[in-house]
Amino acid sequence: MRKLLIGIVLLGLLVGAAVYAGFTDPVLEWRVKSALVEAGIGEARAECMAGRMVERLSPVQLWNLREAMAALQGEPGETYGLGELVERIERVNDSEAVAVLTTSAGLCAIGIG
């Protein structure tokens, strides 16, 4: 029992150290990129945007952004126009996340992101 407890504590410390050191960022970046590609953004642009977004937003902000941008009942799924995008962005309620999302999209679109 004592060895199990020590093992759990050590595992917790290792996971905490990995998160603190930023070793989880590649996984988070991959997940953000995948979500952007699923939303209809091209692979190269999604990779550029994901890198910027992970650097500038917390995991909680990224999660909230994903949830707010998801299609509600009756809305188009993956393919939608500018009007639908604006409606979804208005649901975010996080001006920093919206600013990072839009500037990342713009900078990556013109190739300087």
The largest sheet, given as strand count, sense and whether it forms a barrel, is: none
- Model regions low in confidence, pLDDT < 50 over at least 5 residues: none
Proportion in helices: over 70%
Strand content: under 5%
Shape: elongated
> How many alpha or pi helices?
6
Secondary-structure element sequence?
HHHHHH
3D architecture notes:
The protein is mainly α. The chain has one domain. Helix content is 74%, strand content 0%. The chain contains six helices and no strands. The protein has helices at 2-21, 25-38, 43-56, 59-69, 82-90, 95-110. Helix 2 (25-38) crosses helix 3 (43-56) and helix 3 packs antiparallel against helix 6. It is elongated, with a radius of gyration of 17 Å. The N and C termini lie far apart (52 Å). The model has no long low-confidence stretch (mean pLDDT 78).
Briefly characterize the structure.
The protein contains 6 helices and no strands. With 113 residues, the chain is mostly helical.
Structural topology:
Layout: H1 2-21, H2 25-38, H3 43-56, H4 59-69, H5 82-90, H6 95-110
Helix pairs in contact: 2-3, 3-6
